[in-house]
Backbone:
């Protein structure tokens, strides 16, 4: 059985409650060694070790943290071939461009952006009020952060390499990573690179710990443990809500990303101008990564007119011609089949693709469903449930008023997109629909499809509940994502030499600070 | 029965479930008219009206919001005499300096600081990434904010005038204010000023609504209503935790401030240098406002040596000589008596004052309890429960190691203070104790007592759970407090004329923005 990374050692599990193997979803074959499903002893060991490391890590020089993040990014790039091959075998995601050329560079780039934010003290947001003697900044929680990685990004959201990991480490908090059990060998390899880089840069040995899996009851107990500082989670709504409930009961902040249907509005003028291109782009966005993106266009609003019919016909051609696509697992395949059935039960019609599970391994035929606007509004809750995979629901809207009513019927989502005509003919409709959609989505997109999340300081990869647990935070983009794992601390009348370096008069690190209402890097 | 302010009208209650009167706590006399305890119909009316107003308010010009906040501040100052007299009668808090010279100016000042933050767009924190076409800022929730005011600040934390109110309005969200039933006439007067100022400045009529009281079951239903955008609460831990649980279950952010004992460490050198002064300041801080401050010094750490004995003796003289002090209500009096009894049951000894309820009205004798460090550590949970009123617990620590152990035994608190010698003789001890205390408190204070919360951009009036519900936010200080009622929104590839004004290339409002990592107000 594979070893766990706990308390600065690769060690055999103490009291595993079972084991599991990865499966190649393209073939259905079991691959790789057995990985332990942890019992309570190993979780307790990890919590104790991380708690003991928390103070020392919080007191670590930021430069050391930044050096670790850079070194880890470089190690990931150096191990690219092995990482990509392992992740490809475990997830069925394409080697190129997806894993090798998009997700891996994004992951190392994200770690480097976190390093930059650490060196600049950007996430600490120092505020100085010289008139009152008050100074404030964001500081480490000084407690372990538990990160639950999702199934669909073996690198970029991996519990031991993704944005939650980078953010928690940037705030100098130890991470207890709970890998996703669909890609354990990828996670082990990443943890090994992270651990070696942490030791090489002098970080406490329990800065990075890795567990592969544990039962949900143990997970609920862990996230409700008052020794934990915060939780990052990306995954299903059911799991996210259960974890949120347990964390909330103990007053522990949890940042959960929990599914989204990412409505896309095709306005009449846009379809008239570029219906063929939109159909082509839509197929690409819906089936990219076999549709297993949190920003997948799950619902597309199409006018009930001739241009809308033509768009549907063009899109349907592509969906009908597509071969079954490899999903991440048979579990994902079963959820998708159940989700599509639920949409059909609620009145959606199959209009392209076979909507069928297939083999070898875990595959599904890209498919399109459709429903008219009245039916959608009559069953809006049932029809906006996520069907995670290469499936979209087209909603045919009668007129702009109905499109607005539909926009208002959406729960919180990560993204909302509008495609409008270049000639201005959609501008009046855009204004009204965008106004209705805006408060319901984290990122509003013009004339692009939602898949693809750029790591940028101006990104909001988050959104109103229930797409995430708090609309004020983003899980992607430095330094904003880092804030989630920090606490706001003020110093009142505290002597200069006792202050954190970024709050001292001399500003030796040259940090950007808000001094008496003005951003500057000057000494006081 | 007094009228409620709902949907832009002062109106008779629809289905009150009873009524109540204010009581002058200095005399025990019932004063003023009957106020309704609202039933579900009035709450529903308020939620519907606020929900309908939310979109229009979010679309309002910021200058109009700022003008409202300024006008309301001026109206409060113009009505100062009536406000102060009313609040004095309802709360027993001194007219001067407390109500007239401290709390009222703080309240109007806070509204004006919110107006400044609105005019400068400071709380929107615009971020522009020119390379990716992404722009982000904080935006209104476009849903009602429910504010629960506490008993102890009839102006500065009033649900219809305090920081939560100012913050929610600054983000252009309507407020449903639930007044504290101990000062209904004060709240009615404030709501009347706010409503008139709102109408005069062209805000939607349901921007400000006022309910005086309702049963806790209705309160729990209200905060769990998905039409609500967020909740601000200041009050007891029991009420705060109940509301938090209901709000959490619906994914609604709640910002609850829920009690704090505000540990104060007197280091040996400081006591040697200025024990007499510290004893005098301590008495003032502990009994200010009859000790009814969220930042009251509830626990004071005193060395178990001769200087500590002298400090205790000097403080005891003052407590023994003090007359019974007027509390806010008989409920507060009863809670205080029960809290003191609980501390005594856990091993604390009464060392000064009679620890007795008194009359006329609702009074209590300022009192000091004491316990040694070992006993505190043995019963740390029981001995750090808040006794809200003019009472402190002295904990006698044997040595610096024990002081550190005690610091580590504290739950989350709003503040932590350290008094150290000017000659440097405490510096080594300070460093170790402050390091232990720092992650457990929101505001770390040198050489001052914790009472007194300055409204400053660098304030953190918040702290780790359970002192508040989230350590990343403050309830006082603009623009940080405003963030609580905002959501993070990104614009991706959105055409310039469709962007919010502070994200447009031309930057017509001259807003400070983070453009490609640099704060500036330049046009693009």
Residues:
């Amino acid at each position: 059985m594979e070893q766990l990374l706990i308390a600065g050692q690769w060690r055999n599990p103490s009291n595993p409650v079972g084991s599991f193997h990865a499966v190649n979803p393209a073939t259905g074959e079991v691959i790789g060694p057995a990985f332990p499903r942890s019992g309570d002893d190993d979780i307790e060991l990890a919590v104790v070790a991380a708690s003991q490391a928390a103070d020392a890590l919080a007191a670590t020089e930021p430069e050391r943290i930044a050096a670790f993040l850079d070194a880890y990014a470089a190690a990931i790039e150096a191990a690219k071939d092995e990482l990509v091959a392992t992740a490809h075998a475990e997830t069925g995601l394409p080697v190129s461009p997806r894993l090798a050329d998009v997700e891996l560079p994004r992951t190392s780039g994200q770690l480097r952006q976190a390093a930059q934010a650490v060196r600049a003290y950007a996430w600490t947001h120092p505020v100085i009020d010289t008139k009152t003697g008050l100074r404030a900044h964001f500081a480490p929680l000084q407690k372990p952060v538990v990160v639950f990685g999702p199934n669909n990004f073996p690198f970029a959201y991996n519990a031991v390499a993704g944005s939650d990991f980078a953010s928690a480490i940037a705030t100098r908090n130890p991470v207890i990573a709970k890998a996703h059990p669909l890609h354990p060998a990828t996670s082990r390899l990443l943890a090994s690179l992270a651990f070696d880089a942490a030791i090489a840069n002098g970080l406490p040995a329990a800065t990075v710990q890795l567990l592969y899996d544990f039962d949900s009851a143990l997970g609920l107990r862990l996230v409700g443990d008052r020794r934990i500082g915060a939780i990052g989670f990306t995954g299903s709504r059911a799991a996210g809500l259960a974890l949120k409930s347990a964390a909330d009961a103990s007053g522990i902040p949890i940042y959960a990303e929990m599914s989204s249907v990412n409505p896309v509005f095709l306005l009449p003028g846009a379809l008239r101008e570029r219906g063929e291109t939109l159909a082509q782009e839509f197929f690409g966005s819906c089936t990219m990564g076999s549709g297993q993106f949190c920003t997948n266009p799950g619902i597309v609003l199409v006018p009930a007119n001739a241009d809308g019919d033509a768009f549907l016909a063009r899109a349907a051609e592509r969906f009908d011609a597509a071969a079954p696509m490899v999903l991440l697992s048979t579990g994902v395949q079963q959820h998708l089949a159940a989700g599509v059935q639920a949409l059909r039960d609620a009145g959606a019609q199959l209009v392209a693709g076979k909507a069928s599970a297939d083999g070898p391994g875990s595959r599904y035929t890209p498919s399109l469903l459709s429903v008219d606007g009245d039916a959608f509004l009559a069953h809006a809750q049932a029809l906006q449930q996520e069907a995670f995979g290469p499936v979209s629901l087209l909603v045919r809207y009668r007129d702009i008023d109905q499109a607005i009513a539909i926009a208002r019927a959406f729960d919180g989502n990560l993204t909302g997109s509008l495609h409008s005509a270049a000639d201005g003919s959609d501008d009046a409709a855009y204004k009204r629909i965008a106004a209705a959609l805006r408060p319901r989505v984290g990122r509003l997109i013009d004339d692009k499809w939602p898949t693809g999340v750029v790591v940028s300081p101006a990104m909001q990869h988050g959104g109103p509940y229930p797409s995430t647990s708090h609309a004020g935070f983003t899980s992607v983009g430095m330094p904003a994502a880092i804030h989630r794992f920090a606490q706001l601390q003020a110093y009142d009348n505290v002597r200069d030499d006792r202050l954190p370096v970024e709050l001292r008069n001399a500003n030796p690190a040259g940090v950007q600070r808000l001094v008496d209402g003005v951003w500057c890097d000057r000494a006081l």
Remarks:
- Residues 264-446 of chain A form a domain with the Aldehyde Dehydrogenase; Chain A, domain 2 fold (CATH 3.40.309.10).
- Chain A has 15 helices and 24 strands.
